[in-house]
From TrEMBL:
<dbReference type="InterPro" id="IPR029068">
    <property type="entry name" value="Glyas_Bleomycin-R_OHBP_Dase"/>
</dbReference>
<dbReference type="InterPro" id="IPR037523">
    <property type="entry name" value="VOC_core"/>
</dbReference>
<keyword id="KW-0223">Dioxygenase</keyword>
<dbReference type="Pfam" id="PF00903">
    <property type="entry name" value="Glyoxalase"/>
</dbReference>
<feature type="domain" description="VOC">
    <location>
        <begin position="140"/>
        <end position="258"/>
    </location>
</feature>
<dbReference type="InterPro" id="IPR050383">
    <property type="entry name" value="GlyoxalaseI/FosfomycinResist"/>
</dbReference>
<feature type="domain" description="VOC">
    <location>
        <begin position="8"/>
        <end position="122"/>
    </location>
</feature>
<dbReference type="GO" id="GO:0051213">
    <property type="term" value="F:dioxygenase activity"/>
</dbReference>
<dbReference type="InterPro" id="IPR004360">
    <property type="entry name" value="Glyas_Fos-R_dOase_dom"/>
</dbReference>
<keyword id="KW-0560">Oxidoreductase</keyword>
<protein>
    <submittedName>
        <fullName>2,2',3-trihydroxybiphenyl dioxygenase</fullName>
        <ecNumber>1.13.11.-</ecNumber>
    </submittedName>
</protein>
């Protein structure tokens, strides 16, 4: 039986010079709830999640501020910190009591590409609720995908450092491996690593209650005037639905639902899925065809936060 010290994806923190526009988009249209705002920093919760917040926005130069993962216990936090020290990973700070919304106990470090990663436990959970039938708001943050120039090296870092496992891989017959889907629990992926021209945010994805709510949410975002890059459709890897949009800062954001759960991890065998096959990208065949122009949307801007800790 697979046992890990990490438990789940906790939140995504982004900085943007279009703070006001971004905040309005995520609350008015995307369906997140503003739970706290002060001094150009906003904490946004997903109504179906007990996490104190799922997205943090900060006014500033565009970048990923950090991605946070949960650990089961304080002992797990300390053990992971010791493991990373033994690997000579650069730390932002050691395990300590956290002072942000929700508190908790955790540490921050730079991954192999320079992104800030947080591992925490004992946060003060909020009171979540069941999402109503046909309600077009996210249940939770589903997964985050990074671009990297060294796919295998970055993937191996997350395997070695945080005990992620590869669930499936997208491959091209001429270009080789393109994306690894990675899990830290029995969800098919909480993280994915994509080969790209530079390190950056590829996309972040939010889980909807079901297909009906996913479609209604997709329609709501279309009516907001946001541009849908790709979708609606259903992936092969993860078996989840997808609809990708561009937010006001140029980040790709996804509505999804029905992500696969791997019940027997010990006997799971990752598939290598050919991206030139239509059914790999979209089982239904309802989305616009994947092309180099669609793929380019998720290259995003070069991340300016590499090896630079966020101010909060």
């Amino acid at each position: 039986m697979t046992v890990r010290q990490l438990s789940h994806l906790r939140y995504l923190a982004l900085a943007t010079p279009k703070y006001d526009e971004q905040l309005e988009f995520y609350t008015k249209h995307w369906g997140l709830t503003l739970v706290q705002e002060a001094d150009g920093v906003a904490y946004l919760a997903a109504e179906g999640s007990p996490e104190p917040f799922s997205v943090r926005l900060r006014r500033g130069e565009k970048r990923i501020d950090l991605v946070a993962f949960g650990a089961h216990t304080r002992a797990d936090v300390d053990a992971l910190a010791a493991k990373l020290h033994a690997m000579d990973v650069r730390f932002v700070h050691e395990p300590q009591e956290l002072t942000q919304l929700g508190g908790g106990y955790g540490f921050r470090f730079f991954d192999i590409d320079g992104r800030t990663i947080e591992v925490s436990t004992d946060v003060e959970l909020r009171e979540s609720r069941k999402i109503n039938p046909r309600e077009p708001v996210p249940v939770k943050l589903s997964h985050v995908v990074f671009n990297t120039t060294g796919l295998d090296k970055t993937t191996q870092f997350y395997i070695d450092a945080l005990d992620f496992a590869v669930s499936d891989t997208l491959v091209h017959p001429h270009m080789g491996d393109m994306m690894h889907f990675m899990r830290c629990n029995n969800a098919h992926h909480s993280l994915a690593i994509a080969q790209g021209p530079h390190p950056s945010l590829h996309h972040a994805s939010f889980e909807m209650r079901g297909v009906e709510e996913w479609m209604r949410g997709t329609g709501k975002i279309l009516r907001s005037g946001a541009r849908m890059v790709w979708g609606p459709g259903r992936h092969n890897a993860g078996d989840n639905t997808f609809a990708y949009f561009i937010d006001p800062s140029g980040n790709t954001m996804e509505f999804t639902t029905e992500l696969a759960v791997i019940e027997d991890e010990d006997n799971w065998h990752p598939s290598r899925l050919d991206v030139t096959q239509v059914t790999t990208q979209d089982q239904w065949g309802t989305a616009n065809a994947m092309s180099e122009f669609v793929a380019r949307e998720s290259f995003n801007d070069v991340d300016n936060g590499l090896f630079v800790a966020p101010p909060v």
